[in-house]
């Protein structure tokens, strides 16, 4: 109880002390007051929050320090050394009991021997006893167990540098030899002294600059710019590859109009074309959308759409980001199936209707471009005046083909709204040609029909007497024209027809002793036809 009161009393600060402490912290953050020092004499960053700078109570820290944030418990047994590769210790002269039966070393058994199996082991020959390997054990810490480069000898990389330097030296010597050979050839030609002297001076200048050009390792790579990259780990360096050559104009400077394509400075992207009205052959940049709608980007877009369609249809649950290989394989199978179906439909159509392109003979190479040396003269309206005859348009049907002994084609003759053959004046297609005899016979038949019609008309005009009004049947076309029906008998026949139809609908009312009468009067026939429902009548559903 008293200990708790003491701790509270020590940790208590008055309002004035608290205010002064806050003012001091603000001054330290603003740089007006010196930073606070820790136990080791190092400055403490004033911007570090209090929950990080204040030590736990169980450490009993009297002075401000950041020691509790560091790894201050270090195990001295940990080491950073590594195995001595290939080191040997002792080599015996004769076989020892418990050693490897194959090579004679004491550090491993026969099953773990890495040497080639001998025909007769060292146990029985006592010759060529292998030395013992150096066996080491290390107590590594957490990072030492996971260090990929632990035990790597940096001196080995000097061999790689030496090999590349030798290659560059050989390249420089080869270039010098080539230049010297060219100079010797030009001197042996013995051309004019002035021309040869000028050429020699140029070659000597080239030789002087040869060494500078041959050293490619010292040349500056303008497409690769190294910058310091600040990471969360703190100040690690990295290489940033710039996507634009510094001599080229930046994309946001191509068009300074405010209403032109929008440039996003964070992502360095400009989707639209900054110069839409410029000549496409002269501009090197047409917006980022140009790259998105061409090349492999378009195929990737189709792949995404196919994966989404499969998921929507419920055929297969494919997530493009989780399983890209599966989505690509399904898209490939889909394209193959689509191509097979398209080819199958094409073969079916060609099998049914034929392939007109296959029957056409191969056109000679001389006529592929249709070039000729004929002169053609046109007028102002574009009509041909001289040099080329107008081609007659051809039909898709066969022309000038005469069938069935005809001497003219179908459609060469027209009469009474009908087509026919001109040679025989027949209006029946695919009929056999009768020639002039058929024309004469048709004319004689027409004359005979004409005379009969005139004679019948004259006979009908000669008849006299009152014209009786006749009641013809209302149904049927095979009844005689002079048939007259009795209205009373027709009414009785209509009643009988209604009764007969009622009996057909309800068979229970039909009597057992039925007597059929085969004699049908015209009135009964007319009643049957009047009551009959015609199948093509649009009002048949409204009759009953």
From TrEMBL:
One of its GO terms (molecular function) is pre-mRNA 3'-splice site binding. It holds the Pfam family Slu7. One of its GO terms (cellular component) is spliceosomal complex. The keyword Translocase does not apply. This is Pre-mRNA-splicing factor SLU7. Associated with the spliceosome. It comes from Brassica campestris (Field mustard). It is found in: Nucleus. Residues 140-412 form the Pre-mRNA-splicing factor SLU7 domain. Residues 206-229, 497-509 have a biased composition (Basic and acidic residues). Belongs to the SLU7 family. GO terms for biological process: mRNA splicing, via spliceosome. The keyword Kinase does not apply. Involved in pre-mRNA splicing. Residues 183-237, 497-523 are annotated as: Disordered. InterPro entries: Slu7_dom, Splicing_factor_SLU7. PANTHER family: PRE-MRNA-SPLICING FACTOR SLU7, STEP II SPLICING FACTOR SLU7. It comes from the Eukaryota. Residues 193-205 have a biased composition (Acidic residues). Keywords: mRNA processing, mRNA splicing, Nucleus, Spliceosome.
């Amino acid at each position: 109880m008293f200990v708790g009161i003491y701790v509270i009393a020590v940790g208590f600060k008055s309002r004035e002390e608290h205010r002064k402490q806050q003012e001091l912290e603000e001054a330290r953050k603003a740089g007006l007051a010196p930073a606070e020092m820790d136990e080791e004499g190092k400055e403490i960053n004033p911007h570090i929050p209090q929950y990080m700078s204040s030590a736990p109570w169980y450490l009993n820290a009297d002075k401000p320090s950041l020691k509790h944030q560091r790894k201050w418990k270090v195990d001295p047994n940990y080491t950073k050394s590594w195995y001595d590769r290939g080191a040997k210790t002792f080599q015996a002269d004769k076989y020892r009991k418990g050693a490897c039966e194959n090579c004679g070393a004491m550090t491993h058994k026969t099953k773990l021997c890495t040497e080639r199996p001998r025909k007769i082991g060292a146990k029985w020959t006592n010759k060529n006893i292998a030395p013992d390997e150096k066996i080491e054990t290390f107590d590594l810490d957490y990072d030492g167990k996971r260090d990929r480069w632990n035990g790597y000898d940096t001196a080995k990389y000097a061999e790689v540098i030496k090999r590349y330097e030798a290659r560059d030296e050989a390249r420089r010597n080869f270039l010098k030899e080539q230049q010297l050979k060219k100079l010797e050839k030009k001197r042996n030609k013995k051309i004019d002294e002035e021309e040869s002297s000028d050429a020699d001076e140029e070659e000597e200048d080239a030789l002087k600059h040869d060494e500078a050009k041959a050293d490619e390792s010292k040349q500056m790579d303008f497409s690769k710019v190294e910058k310091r990259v600040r990471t969360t780990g703190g100040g690690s360096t990295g290489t940033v590859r710039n996507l634009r050559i510094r001599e080229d104009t930046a994309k946001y400077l191509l068009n300074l109009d405010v209403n032109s394509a929008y440039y996003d400075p964070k992502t360095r992207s400009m989707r639209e074309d900054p110069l839409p009205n410029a000549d496409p052959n002269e501009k090197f940049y047409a917006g980022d959308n140009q790259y998105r709608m061409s090349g492999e980007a378009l195929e990737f877009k189709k792949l995404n759409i196919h994966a989404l369609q499969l998921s929507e249809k419920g055929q297969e649950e494919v997530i493009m980001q989780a399983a890209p290989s599966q989505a690509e394989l399904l898209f490939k199978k889909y394209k193959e199936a689509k191509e097979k179906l398209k080819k199958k439909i094409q073969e079916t159509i060609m099998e049914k209707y034929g392939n007109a392109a296959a029957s056409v003979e191969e056109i000679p190479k001389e006529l592929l471009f249709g070039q000729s040396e004929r002169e053609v003269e046109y007028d102002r309206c574009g009509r041909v005046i001289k040099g080329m005859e107008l081609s007659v348009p051809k039909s898709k049907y066969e022309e000038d083909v005469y069938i069935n002994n005809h001497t003219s084609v179908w459609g060469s003759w027209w009469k009474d709204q009908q087509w026919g053959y001109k040679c025989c004046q027949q209006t029946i297609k695919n009929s056999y040609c009768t020639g002039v005899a058929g024309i004469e016979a048709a004319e004689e038949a027409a004359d005979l029909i004409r005379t009969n019609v005139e004679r019948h008309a004259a006979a009908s005009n000669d008849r006299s007497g009152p014209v009786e009004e006749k009641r013809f049947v209302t149904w049927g076309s095979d009844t005689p024209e002079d048939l007259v029906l009795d209205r009373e008998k027709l009414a009785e026949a209509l009643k009988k027809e209604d009764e007969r139809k009622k009996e057909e609908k309800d068979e229970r009312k039909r009597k057992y002793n039925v007597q059929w009468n085969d004699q049908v009067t015209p009135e009964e026939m007319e009643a049957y036809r009047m009551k009959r429902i015609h199948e093509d009548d649009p009002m048949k559903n409204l009759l009953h």
